[in-house]
Write a structure and sequence with these properties.
By secondary structure, this protein is of the alpha+beta class. The chain has one domain (about 10-260): Double-stranded beta-helix (4-Layer Sandwich), CATH 3.60.130.30. About 35% of the residues lie in helices and about 15% in strands. The chain has seven helices and ten strands. It has helices at about 20-40, 75-85, 90-105, 105-125, 225-230, 240-245, 250-260, and strands at about 10-15, 55-60, 70, 140-145, 165-170, 180, 185-190, 195-200, 205, 215-220. The strands form two sheets. It has a seven-stranded antiparallel beta sheet, with helices on one face. It has a three-stranded antiparallel beta sheet with strand order 7-6-9, with no helix packed on it. A hairpin with an 8-residue loop joins strand 2 (about 55-60) and strand 3. Helix 1 (about 20-40) crosses helix 3 (about 90-105) and helix 3 crosses helix 4. The N and C termini lie close together (about 10 Å). This is Prolyl 4-hydroxylase alpha subunit Fe(2+) 2OG dioxygenase domain-containing protein.
């Protein structure tokens, strides 16, 4: 999907042309269902700012008062559940398809993610990426059972980066589960097992409600903007960087340079 200058900003990556993909997707849906039940048994709540469903994050991030980049932490009772989830080969396959889609559709953004991740891991080997060979720093596992989000922005994500969302579940994608991009005035069919890439920090989004008997889960992968700022500031906070007498590129200049990383397609 392109803007008025033919610059792509939303990418419908779909799914691999592979007869085994359907089985992988069904396995992830079952995995999410099982994971949600375990998290609920441990006391997980199903209500937060994005909607009324169970979700949990994994990976590493920076922001909201952190002094340094660190791995996301879970309660002891949830850590084993999340480790089992992230270690599943079906979920890893889906996650890495989304990372490869980023490389295919938005190679300059992929390169920036890749270089930033390598710099962080070299600086701090204790950081634990979710999936080997994957450039996204963080993932939200939306285990439903009905992942219907409110209209929101993921304001802490890298503004010019891409959020990769992959959908799973038992629903009729012709009538349910569509992705709504409010600022672009788009409603997009979202079949189970398909992936969509879009800048979730600057495009308000939500998804269409489901029938009572339907289920909808999703894997959302992203990187916090604070991770890129942390590297640019010499592996320190912005506050410490500015206190040392340094300055950052103006927001306007950064906007112009970053927008150019999105590919332009012939009319």
């Amino acid at each position: 999907i392109v803007d008025s200058e033919q610059r792509g900003f939303v990418f419908l990556a779909g799914a691999p042309n592979d007869p085994t993909w359907g089985e992988t997707v069904n396995n992830v849906a079952s995995l999410y269902e099982d994971t949600r039940k375990k998290l609920v048994a441990n006391g997980a709540e199903g209500r937060h700012r994005r909607g009324g469903f169970v979700a949990d994050d994994s990976g590493y991030s920076f922001g909201q008062g952190q002094q340094r980049v660190g791995n996301l932490k879970h309660r002891a009772c949830d850590q084993q559940v999340m480790d089992s989830l992230i270690g599943d080969h079906n979920l890893r396959r889906v996650a890495n398809f989304a990372s490869a889609a980023l490389q295919n559709y938005v190679p300059e953004v992929f390169q920036e993610y890749d270089e930033n991740m390598k710099a962080l891991l070299e600086h701090d080997p204790t950081l634990r990426p979710n999936f080997p060979g994957n450039v996204f720093a963080c993932a939200t596992n939306n285990t439903g059972p009905q992942t219907v989000t409110t209209v929101h922005l993921d304001h802490l994500n890298y503004a010019f980066g891409m959020c990769a969302v992959t959908a799973f579940g038992n629903y009729d994608y012709k009538t349910s589960g569509h992705l709504i991009l409010w600022d672009a005035k788009l409603i997009i069919e979202f079949p189970p097992g398909s992936t969509i890439l879009f800048p979730s920090a600057i495009l308000r989004h939500s998804n269409v409600c489901l029938r009572p008997e339907e289920t909808w889960y999703s894997l959302t992968q992203y990187s916090a903007g604070g991770l890129f700022r942390y590297v640019r500031c010499g592996f320190r906070s912005l506050k410490a960087y500015l206190a040392a007498g340094h300055e950052l590129t103006s927001e306007y200049e950064e906007w112009k340079d970053s927008w150019k990383k999105y590919p332009v397609f012939p009319a």
